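I hope you will forgive my troubling you with a question about protein structure. I should value your view on which stretches of the chain appear to form regular backbone elements. Here, with my thanks, is the record as I have it:
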Amino acid sequence: MPKLTPADAAQALRNPLAFIADRWTPTQRTVQRAAMSAVVMTVIIVITGGAVRLTGSGLGCPTWPKCTDQSLTATSEMGFHGAIEFGNRMLTYVLCAAVGWAIIAARSQKPWRRPLTRLGWAQFWIVMGNAVLGGIVVLVGLNPYTVAAHFILTTALLTVAVLMWQRTREGDSAPRPLVGASVKQLVWFLVAASGLLIAVGTVVTGAGPHAGDSSDVKRMPLDWETVTKLHAVLAWIVVTLTFALWFVLKAVDAPKGPLHRTRDLFLILLAQGVIGYVQYFTDLPEVLVGLHMLGSALVWIGVLRVVLSLRERPTTTVDLPGPSTQEPVSAGR
């Protein structure tokens, strides 16, 4: 390791990311893995957030940012619910670490690809905003509208994380379309329908029986059966659009990328639909509801991958890393 001089220390304080980038060059695979870690942690946060609600632990820590007025952490007296809620809060730090790792890896790549770093920072600020919103959710007693907004913002985080992961696997040249304008229009109808499906899903949750706490938590003043049926209709619309897209892609002899991504989405939707109907007819068992929340994240990832498969960004010479692909690379070697 090179000896750290006072000038180096001053530089590290002024711009720690540039300081690290001067001394380390990650491989392309490392950057991709760092971006993927942010995607995986976002999905895990969706699952653990669902576990908090489904176990009735939403107010296991009754205040924020502390767990109680007297303690920063959960205490033994708070029992199972306190441990679940506080554990979910701690996972936010793991998510921050994953996003930070993605930012550092993107900033240290040679040549520096600024769009990747910006996508990493976008994730960071969404995480910060959602952490504050999560605190508001607790302070207002799990108001269903704030809970819905919390999930929608997590979906936005997932969107940026998937986009960054995809961009680590591409170059920075101008995107080249792989399908015609009519196919792209059909895909955007699919995106709109999928987004509406997820939004209505949060309303189903807000009006449904799993309030997130054993106390009397207010629900959205809507008929749950009616909203659930609307959600089911939207799901069938998304499935139909996906099948129609696959048929059109086949008819126009589209490249394998869009075809395979559409097929993957169709299979995810079928599995999600089976879980949805089974949970509806079995009075919403917690395990199936949790699987359905996981399915919601996977459906959205599938939709995003379909969109991103419609174009390609070939890697140019400028996009390639420098001659050194060993890691770590230090200034003294």
In short: The chain has a mean pLDDT of 88. Strands lie at 176-177, 311-312.
